[in-house]
Amino acid sequence: MLRRLSVVVRHAVLLAASVFFVFPLYWMFSGSLKRPIEIWAYPPKWIPSTLQFSNYTHLFRSKPVLQWALNSIIISLITVGLVVILSAAAGYGYAKKRFPGSRLLFSLIVATMMMPTQVTLVPLYKLCVSLGLVNTYAGVILPTLAYPFGVFIVRQFATTIPDELLEAAKIDGAGELRTFLVIVIPMLLPALGALAIFAFMHSWNAYLWQLVILQSESMLTLPVGVSTMIYEEITINYGMAMTGATIAAIPLILFFLALQKSFIQGITLGSIKG
Amino acid sequence: MKRDTLWGYLFVVPNLLLVLTFLIYPLLQAFRLSLFDAGLYSQTFVGLENYREIFRDDVFLISLKNTFYFVILIVPAVIVTALTFAALMQGFKQRTKAVYRLIFYLPVVMTPVVLSMIWRYMFNPSYGLVTYFAELLGFGMVDFFSSQTSALLALSFVVVIWMLGQPIILFLSAIDGVPPELYEAAKIDGANSLQAFFRITLPMIMHATLLITVTSTISVFQIFVVIHLISGGGPYHGTESLVYTIYNTAFVSLEFGKASAQSVVLFGIVAVVAAIQFRLMKPSMN
Q: Would residue B33 count as lying in a domain?
C-alpha cells in the first residue's frame, strides 16, 4: 500500500513538472492561431476562439520563410554529410594508424573540443571577410566542419574494431581505401548515426555565427530569420512571432520523434561512460 | 610501416586542416587582436590597453558578474533537479521512463531560439501568462524584466528548463548501471529507499555527476540566445552575459580589439573548467 502510494506521488511530481516542458509548446501553437485582439486579451485566452490561419498566410507573404527553411535544410544537409565523412576518416586514422604525432594531434583535437567557439567569433569573422565568405553558404558551413567532437566519438568507437579483421582484409589484397569503405565504415555505423544526429542539431541550432555571417534577409536560416521578428521589432507581433516559432520548431520535433532511440543512444554514447 | 604512416596522415589531414584553419588559427588571432586597437580593416598596436579598458568598463564587469551568477544559479539547479527526476523514475518500466525522457527532452529539441521566443511572450508584462499567474498568486502584475534580480532569476529558470533534458537522460542511464545486488543487500540490511539513494546510488554515479557538472558549467558560460531574445541584455545591461557583451562590443560597437580581449578572458575562465573536465575524461580515453 505504502509502495503504491509512493509511486502515485512520484508520478504526480513528475507530471506537475512536465507542465513546464510541454505547455510552452501548446502556448506557441495556440498563439499562432490567435488574432492580435486575442493575443492582447487579459486574462489570457486559453483557447483561440476560431480556428483560423491568417497569421500563417500573412507570414508567408511578408517574410521569405520558405527560403529560410530551404537555406537551413541545404546548410545542415551539406554540413552533416561532410562532418560524418571527415570525422569517420580522421577518427579511424587516430584509432588504427600509427604515425608520428598521432597522440599529440588527437590530444589537440580533444582540447579544442572544450573550447567555447565564441572565443573565435571576431577573428573568424575577419578571416571570412578576407576570404570573401560573408553572406554565403560556405561562410556558414566551413567553420562548423571542424567538429572535434565528431572525431572524438568516432575514434572512441573505432578502437573497438579488431585489428585481425583489418589484417585479414589486407591479406585478401584489399587496399587501404577499400578496407576503410567496405569494412570500417559499416562497423562504425552506430557511431556515425549518432554523430549525424548531433551534427544536424548542432548545425540547425548554430545561431550566433549565422547571425554574424549572414547579412541579407534572403540568406538567413530558419531560426535566425524567425528570431528577427523578436529582436528587430519595436512592438512585437506575438501572433506572427509564434507562427514563425511553430514553423521553425516543427521540423526538429518531427526529426526527434522519428529518431528518438538513436538520440538517446547518441547522448549516452557521446558522454563518456564513467 | 611507412605505408601505414602515409595513410594515417591521409585519413586525418582533411579534418586537421579545418581544425587548424577555423579553430586554432582564429584562437591565436584572438590573443593577437586583443593587443590591438582594431576595426574591420585597420589596426594599431596598443599593448595591454584593451585589457586595462575592459576591466574598467562597467558593462563588461557586470556581464562577468552575471555570468558567474548564471553558473551559481543554474548549474546546481540543473544537477539537483535532473538527479531528483531520474531518482523518482527509478523502478519505473522502461516504457514509462521513455515517455518522461521524451517530455523533458522536448525543450532541447525545440531549439533555444523557439523556446526563448515563447518565454518572452509568456513573460510579457501586460498580457503574458506568467504575469497572469503572478497576479493570481497575489504578486500583482510584475514585470520580471524591470529589475535586474528578477530578470536574472527569470532567465535562469528558462535556461534550466532548456538544459535539463540531457542530464536527465545521463543520470537515468547511470542509475540503470548500478548493480541491483547492491540494493537487494541494502534491503536485507533494512535500509529504506532514501537511505539506499544516498548510500548506494549517489556514490555509484559520482563520476557521471562530476562530468555533467563540468559540461553544464561550460555551456552556461556560453549563454547567448536566451539573453539576446528575451531580455536584450536589459534592464540597463543588467542581464548581459559574457558572450552577449562580446557580440555587442564586436558587432554593434565594432571594437574588435576590445571584443578580442573579452574573448581571451572568456577563454581563460573556460580553460580552467575544461582542464578539470580533461582530468575526469582521461581514464576513459585509453
A: no
Q: What is the mean pLDDT of residues B150-161?
A: 96
Residue B161 is assigned to a structural domain of this protein:
yes
In the chain, the amino acid numbered B273 is V
Spatial separation of the C-alpha atoms in residues B162 and B74, rounded to whole Å: 11
B93 φ, ψ (degrees, to nearest 5) = -65, 150
Residues 207-226 of chain A with CB under 8 A from chain B are 207-208, 212, 223-224, 226
Instruction: Give one word for B258, left, alpha or beta, with left for phi > 0 and alpha for psi -120 to 50.
Output: alpha
User: Which residues 20-39 in chain B show a CB within 8 A of chain A?
Assistant: 21-27, 29-30, 33
Q: Are the CB atoms for B262 and B241 separated by under 8 Å? A: no
* Total number of domains constituting chain B: 1
- Torsion sign across C-alpha atoms A207, A212, A213, A216: positive
Q: What is the mean pLDDT of chain B?
A: 91
Cα–Cα distance, A226 to A218 (Å, whole number) = 12
CATH number of domain containing B280? 1.10.3720.10
B88 contacts on A by Cβ (under 8 Å): 10, 13-14
Report CA-CA distances (Å) from B266 to A89, A115, A117, B197.
32, 10, 10, 37
Pick the residue from chain B with its C-alpha nearest to A159: B286
Containing domain of residue B135, as a range? 54-285
Name which of A93, A208, A263 is nearest B224 (Cβ-Cβ). Answer: A208
Q: What is the mean pLDDT of residues B202-206?
A: 89
Q: Is residue B274 part of a domain?
A: yes
Contact B278 A44 (CB under 8 A): no
List of E strands, A151-253: none
3-state class (DSSP) for residue A60: helix
Convert A129-160 to b/e letters by CB count within 10 Å (16 or more is b): eeeebeeeeebbbbbbbbbbbbbbbbbbbbee
Which residues in chain B touch residue A248, judged by CB atoms under 8 angstroms apart?
Answer: 111, 113-114
Closest Cβ–Cβ partner in A205, A236, A267 for B112: A205
Above 50 in pLDDT, residue B188? Answer: yes
pLDDT of B248 above 80: yes
In a domain, residue B106? The reply is: yes
Q: How far is CA B232 from CA A231, B247, B251, in A?
A: 8, 12, 15
Which chain A residues touch B120 with a CB distance below 8 Å?
A: 230, 236
Are the beta carbons of A142 and B173 separated by less than 8 Å? Answer: no
A63 to A31, A58, A225, A235, A244: CA distances (angstroms): 18, 9, 9, 17, 10
Give the minimum alpha-carbon distance from A195 to chain B in angstroms, rounded to a whole number.
15
Grid coordinates belonging to A207: 545561431
CB-based contact (8 Å) between A5 and chain B?
Answer: no
Q: How many helices (H) and strands (E) does chain B have?
A: 16, 2
Q: Tell me the pLDDT band of B186, cut-offs 50, 70 and 90.
A: confident
* Structural domains for chain A: 64-270 (1.10.3720.10)
**B26 contacts A120? CB cut-off 8 A:** yes
